[in-house]
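Reproducibility note. Readers wishing to regenerate the assembly model reported in the main text can use the exact inputs given here. Chain order matters: entities are listed in the order in which they were concatenated for prediction.
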Amino acid sequence: MDEPGTAPRGRLYLVPAPLDFGCDPVPLEQVLPAATLEVAARLPVWIAENAKTLRAYLKRVGASHPLAHPLQALRIQQLPRTVHKHGDQAAGLAGFDARDLLAPALGGDDIGLASEAGMPAVADPGASVVRAAHELGLAVIPLIGPVAPLLALAASGLNGQSFAFVGYLPTEPAARAARIRELEALALTSGQTQLFIETPYRNSALLQALLQTLQPRTQLAVASGLTLASQAIASRPVAAWRRGAARIDDRVPAVFAIGR
Amino acid sequence: MDEPGTAPRGRLYLVPAPLDFGCDPVPLEQVLPAATLEVAARLPVWIAENAKTLRAYLKRVGASHPLAHPLQALRIQQLPRTVHKHGDQAAGLAGFDARDLLAPALGGDDIGLASEAGMPAVADPGASVVRAAHELGLAVIPLIGPVAPLLALAASGLNGQSFAFVGYLPTEPAARAARIRELEALALTSGQTQLFIETPYRNSALLQALLQTLQPRTQLAVASGLTLASQAIASRPVAAWRRGAARIDDRVPAVFAIGR
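Running the prediction on these inputs yields the following structure tokens for the assembly.
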């Protein structure tokens, strides 16, 4: 219960975005529940990876769920560039204090946290903001929407009862091959599915490296363009990948998974 | 392209269910996008963890999206009890061939795969069916809905750019403590958030074991009743958990996460 005379505190909502950032747009109702759209349409304050992307997203939300505040009246704070570029861990080392971004909640305003695509703080920056919300005693409410690594895992046919998401692999070829072998050994010995991602323009390079490095019987799943018209999901042993003409779209995000 | 005279093959849709199994129901529109409800309403054939639970779910879907086929006309196949109880890995060892369940797709029917709560094949059985679909060359389409471990991760404030879900911990106290220490060491040294679950009636026992076993500075997040009216999400260092009266609802599912 709040003390008499003090405003109730605002909450931090984690607001998922569609996975079509930089791609052909999909109808929002296809990927977001009505409740997610309703909350997004009423929040007055935002913390975003990128303010311009957030405005474009909220404009789409407003087409079906009228915005409670005009776009230009929204208070939008951007995550520091370090967080955007190097993740929350690096930001922590740099002494970034996300509590400052949450000041409006202490005055009673609900705040939305959004990334450019998918769920904030999952395979994307934002965890430092959520951590700060807990430190301040704010309620944290995750909303429902598409999460690329999870859709890829479900559709992979690989073990979904033990899995790990490890982010990006190194881009330098020798380091990348070593990391692929390390993840394969882990997946084969423990049975834990290993998921990772790559910047779209390097999708083909990563797929080729995987086919050159992995053992023939290791199962490899590749899910590209998830939720988009161009969605393509394949899962087969490496030996079968090698027999076919393995192709992947270098213009859309992809998730890769290996397992046994 | 299909050969002339052959029917196009059906697809395997992964259909998420709400997280309210065994709890007070939440409105489906709150947790599922319209597209998920539309597909669920039209599928003629299903593979389910439990046929009775699936019928109850589809009855709720039908209240807003009229079902294309009456409930009693749906063809519902249950996953074998071994898969339900021990997971897909055990089933593989038992020689279960999920391809038989997918025969209707070879005749052109779309099939839905559903678990009792959340996303099939993620923290739940079903991967063997997805694997079989890929072996048969069927398209696999994951639909969007709530996934408890991911909502918990996003709301935890723990590292979301490297994380692992490891399922259930042992219930025997000494083995459980050893596993907790192992997961804590992994989380602290690698920075990889470790997520796990417990059967609801053991939630309190697991929380007490965590507080007794973990180091004071380890960050512990507990998310119970996700998406339900009773949703409770807390994330703090173990030392702070110990200072408060740590309580958890033993009637609703919970996800636990540790990290640094």
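We highlight two features of this model. Chain A has a mean pLDDT of 92. The first strand of chain A starts at residue 12 and ends at 14.
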